[in-house]
């Protein structure tokens, strides 16, 4: 360990010793560990302590590195401009200064930061999947610090939440029980935020019913291609979830193709069903039912295809997709009506086994305290506020009288959000004031947010349709909180790089016909040569350890 890291480790040890001493002297303090109190007075007192407020305390400066989403960057240039953070900086004695990598270079900037060891106090990024060796290795390397003791002593709201939700607590720990970040968690009753959609006005025009099976989809796309002269009857963004692969009961790109069946890890692109799926997609490509740009389509192109009425069916999100396409489409065609369709199955009456389910835990939007942080106690207290009732309200609704009003006990967005005077969409208006409609450290479990975010009848119906089979997905998808050991992560990185590159290359070739599916057995042999069985074994080991946490 270099001098810089040794100094940081010494500072960290000193800080933790001080934290322990303070804890011993303040065991009777109202802000100590305990359950969340619904009484506003007690809750406010706890929140004041959690945020580090105090008239006689000197302001503490924290540097906080986090990516700035491209769409959010159109309304603010820095998270410090967002109302919720302005309020926290004013109310607490913690002055957070955000630093953002250039859009599109987040991975590169993260890697450079790790190499230089010039660390900010807090990093919001995916150490679970982006740091070589994962969080355990990052702790071993002296980059980030474990948070168990700090949360136990100085984060009463988060501690209480984790005690009340052991399934969530399981997600954010390593196999040895180490809590390695302040998590971004969702506890919403809304189970899915996206899925397959179709132009209902066109279905009605030709007396067609909403599709249930893959065959239904094929028949509808064929009719609409012929009748409407469509160039891209079915379109989706590059590498977005493929609902038709799910209809065959396999994963392809989600979770890098891995899923489970009764606790046994399987790799989708190795299964017999994958060949059947590819055969169908190749047929669609040949017949002009599948968007010819399926392997390269970006968001701008996708938007154009939908709004120029070149696509009948798409995969999209309820908010940013349906919520924007329907109003914009109606400006050109008053009958434009994009609605949700249940995830397709092979046989009528079957249940979808995979959906785009809302994740409980988002490791990439959680906050990691680095060894450079000289104020870990105050930092944890600052973050703990976002798990309090008051903090959740600020994070989800902003400032009362400005972005919401209370109608009885129901926080109701004002026109600043719902009918923005600058003409901003609901999503962008929210982004000026709160980190609500995108994951962020804290807890998002207030149904009033999505009840108002989804304004259209089509959106309200989509929530129910897409979320209906979420429990099946929970049984079949791998948990987000799987943690490889340092050795496993190193081995997986080598295996994954070759395997994923090859699978994506052959996926495109098989569908476009550049490679005949008669050579599928040769494809499988190549995957075996690339040691896909070993990669599957490593995933199985991680799942087995996760199950006994």
UniProtKB/TrEMBL annotation:
<keyword id="KW-0732">Signal</keyword>
<feature type="region of interest" description="Disordered">
    <location>
        <begin position="29"/>
        <end position="53"/>
    </location>
</feature>
<dbReference type="InterPro" id="IPR050490">
    <property type="entry name" value="Bact_solute-bd_prot1"/>
</dbReference>
<feature type="compositionally biased region" description="Low complexity">
    <location>
        <begin position="40"/>
        <end position="52"/>
    </location>
</feature>
<protein>
    <submittedName>
        <fullName>ABC transporter substrate-binding protein</fullName>
    </submittedName>
</protein>
<feature type="signal peptide">
    <location>
        <begin position="1"/>
        <end position="23"/>
    </location>
</feature>
